[in-house]
Amino acid sequence: MENIIIIGGGPAGYTAAVYTARANLSPIVFEGSKYGGQLMTTTEVDNFPGFPEGIQGPELMTNVRKQAERFKTKLITEDITKVDFSRKESKNLLVFSGDKKYEAKAVIIATGSDYKKLGIDSEKKFAGKGVSYCATCDGFFFKDKDIVVIGGGDSALEEATFLTKFASSVKIIHRRDALKASKFMQDKAKANKKIDFVWDSVIKEIQGESNVELIRVENIKTEDISEIKCQGVFVAIGSIPNTTLFEDQLKLDKGYVVTGTKELPKSTQTSVEGVFAAGDVQDWMYRQAVTSAGTGCMAAIEAERYLEKLE
To answer: CB-based contacts of 305: which residues, under 8 Å, 6+ apart?
Structure first.
């Protein structure tokens, strides 16, 4: 029997671990086979408070992980394969890692999300070397550069508009001849003199020496191939919350875990009492390391108060 189990080893999960461990709750963190979340594939992180010179993503996550360990958090480098929050078999919450079963009084879900990828080989090659999935994270590094943004929804247009603060030019590449974004966002983007559109097109290849230098684009109607010189490729085709485990266990909205109660709408409480969610798994809007850490703190404090009520 465990007091609290935390599923996920990113900023939210480790922050929740620090807080619950300091409250003497002896948390267990199932950090998965790959710990650290999306920051493990991020190079320079300039917008996390406390690092005036910036810090590498993997270094930041290693530091937060060590901080959790310092307070005697038990870290298990295994993936959770199943959960049972029904309380039919036990009055407690059940978590499974393969054939191993764990019982807990409270669970914090911090499984994060993954950016949707283009699915081309060169995308992985240039990740962190001109290919990015977060304008607010990396836009600063593209001052006076030519940038392309892939996508046609609100998030793509928001990213493109934000990037015009830094870039010389921004081209939005969309596979259709009409945008999916809201009318307001379309009008805003089309009125921006730094933004141009490339319609009916998909990116086929990213090229360069050590960093992005150009992309090859195919018009899906004419099948013509063209080249666009650029130094940055921002992929904004959406994100996928890692919630497959919870589809029949918790209330979800477009894949994201629904949190909040009538009394406390900003709570991290899920639809099951004693189960809390933090980080990108419940955040479709901000998706930042600092907001993930913040909700990890919130979930930990709420879980601690929940356990106090049980006793």
So the answer is: none
Domains and CATH numbers, the chain: 2-114+239-310 (3.50.50.60), 117-235 (3.50.50.60)
pLDDT of residue 43: 66
* Residues pairing with 83 in the sheet: 95
Question: What is the distance between the terminal CA atoms of the chain, rounded to a whole angstrom?
Answer: 14
Collect all residues with Cβ–Cβ distance below 8 Å to 184 and sequence separation of at least 6. Answer: none
| DSSP-based three-state secondary structure for 214 | strand
Rounded distance, CA 291 to CA 178, Å?
33
**Strand bridging mode 100-109 / 55-56:** unpaired
For 160-190, the pLDDT digits (tens) are 999 999 999 999 999 999 998 889 989 999 9
With CA atoms as reference, report the closest residue to 5 among 185, 263, 245. Answer: 245
Torsion of CA 122, 124, 129, 132, to 10 degrees: 110
Answer whether 0.90 is exceeded by the pTM. Answer: no
Catalytically active residues are 134, 137-138
